[in-house]
Each structure stands twice: as structure tokens, then as C-alpha cells.
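Task: sequence in, structure out. Protein: CD209 protein.
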Amino acid sequence: MYAKLMMVIFVTVVTGQQTVWPRTEDRFLCSPVVHVHNYLDKQEQGDQPEASQVDQLRDHLTRLQARIDSIQTNGTKQVQSRDILIAELQEQVKNLTTELSLLKQACRETCPETDEGLTCPSGYVQFQDSCFKFSTDRKTYSQARSTCQADGGHLSLVKDEATNTFLLSQMETIYASFNTPHIYVGATDQVQEGTYVWDDGTPVTGWAGWAPGQPADVPPAMTSDCAEWRLGSRGNGWVMDQCYFSQYYVCEVSATAA
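Result:
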């Protein structure tokens, strides 16, 4: 009889009869353990000499069923805990990404970028990833632009306050003996009157170092104007002037790997 019982267990389990149970009541009615219990009930009624073996087997199967239930319950709890943990981690990643973006923006406005491994041509001064050369001669805006282009660069693009502050500190030393020197900034409305663009063709938007009341047309009206610093005047802000005046200027090239 014991062999028959083992065969019933083997056939019931191996043939895959209801081995996954979505509901407790279905699991109780359809599980292999219940099938074996039913079989044992019938055998116990007609085969008393082996009743002790039947009881032992039934007890073992009961413990097995309890173990299966425990594993399924714990598995469900683990899946739920995992989903909660994943959601929490995703929220943390989102918050950290936002914080990092804000820190990068703040650093771009206040912190100098690393310049390790970069170098500038002779006669240029490095700031961040750019190199600047301050003229000792004076030229019109077009002539100054051509000179900078011949050096492989352009007139200075002062697109943020940190660069403007650095250039002013350099110019206040270089041109200290000059009386209110004028130095061209690489911005003009030569292409379209009233629309100011940098020397690289990009529009003058965002931060700008204009003096109060600037930019403003310089008489005669409807003529091209070019931006310049006037050291010692108007808080060293940018002002517009006629592009044909000969002024000092600042060339800019990109720093290169050493």
C-alpha cells in the first residue's frame, strides 16, 4: 500500500495537477496534498494494518502543505517589499538628479571651470576653456575682427558675468595708465539695425553687461553700432558706439589640450 501512496504522490505532483493555486479555497480543493489526503482517507477505511503509516504520511503532507503556503505568502510579501523599495529608490534618483542640475547651474554662474590640461597661444591669457589677448593698438571694429580671425579666433564673447569680471580685472591693470580707454566687446548690430549679435553670429540674449540705458543708438540714427567697455565710466558697463572709431579690442580663441 505504501508503494501505491508514493505512486499517487508522484503521479499527482509530476503530472502537474493544479500545482499553482491563485486562491486559498482553490488551493485547498485542488492541491496534490489534498488529493493524497483523500486517497489516504479511503485507504485508512479499508486497510487498518497500515493505518500508522497512513497517519505518518498524512502528517508529513500536512506539514508540506503548510510549508508551501508559507513560501507563497512570504514570496508575495517579498515582491510587495521589493516594489516599494524600487519606487522609493526611483524617487530618490529623481530628487538627486534635480539637485545635481541645480548645482551645475549655480556652479556655471559662480565657479570657474577646470582648465587642467589646457593651454593657450603665446600672448594670450587663459580663463576657463578660453584664451584672451588684449590689444595695445587701436583699430575699427571691422579691422579688429579681421585681426582676431587671422589669429584663428574672434572678438571676445562675454556671455556670462564671470567672464566679464575676469576681463575687467585684466583690463584695469593693462590699461591702467590710459584715460578712460574704450575696448571693443564682440557684439554689434551691423547685420540688422537694433538686433545685437555676438561675433560668432549668436544673438545677445540672457546675461549681458550693458550699462544703464544701453544698448542705445548712437547718432546719427540708423547706423551700425558696436559694443565697448569704457573703463572708469558708467560702472564699466557696455555702451554702444560707432563701429568706425578706432578702439582697443580683445581677441578670443579656444584653449587646446596641452
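Strands lie at 118-119, 125-127, 130-134, 154-155, 182-192, 195-198, 225-230, 238-242, 248-254, 256-257.
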